[in-house]
Design goal:
Blueprint: H1 6-19, E1 21-23, E2 27-28, E3 31-32, H2 34-42, E4 46-48, E5 54-57, H3 60-74
Antiparallel strand pairs: 1-5, 2-3, 4-5
């Protein structure tokens, strides 16, 4: 299982910002997304829902700002 890179993290953040939620298993494809899931919850960008592994966006501004910062780092 590979650790996620910045590109994967940006895609998760973009999906969360666009949809307001994300259905994110701890392992998606070849990546272990547990660290991203935990970060989004502990930083209060997202919260867990009743549905298993779903996250709901609770701080859109922080999500968008973090996405922008990470995109800038990739350049």
């Amino acid at each position: 299982m590979k650790k996620p890179n910045i590109r994967v993290f940006i895609e998760v953040l973009k999906t969360l910002a666009d949809q307001g939620f994300i259905d994110m298993e701890p392992t998606e494809g070849e990546y272990n997304l547990t660290s991203i899931y935990d970060f989004l919850v502990t930083s209060r960008i997202a919260e867990r829902t009743v549905e298993r592994y779903w996250l709901r966006l609770i701080n859109e501004d922080a999500c968008l700002m973090l996405t922008g910062l990470l995109k800038d780092l990739r350049r």
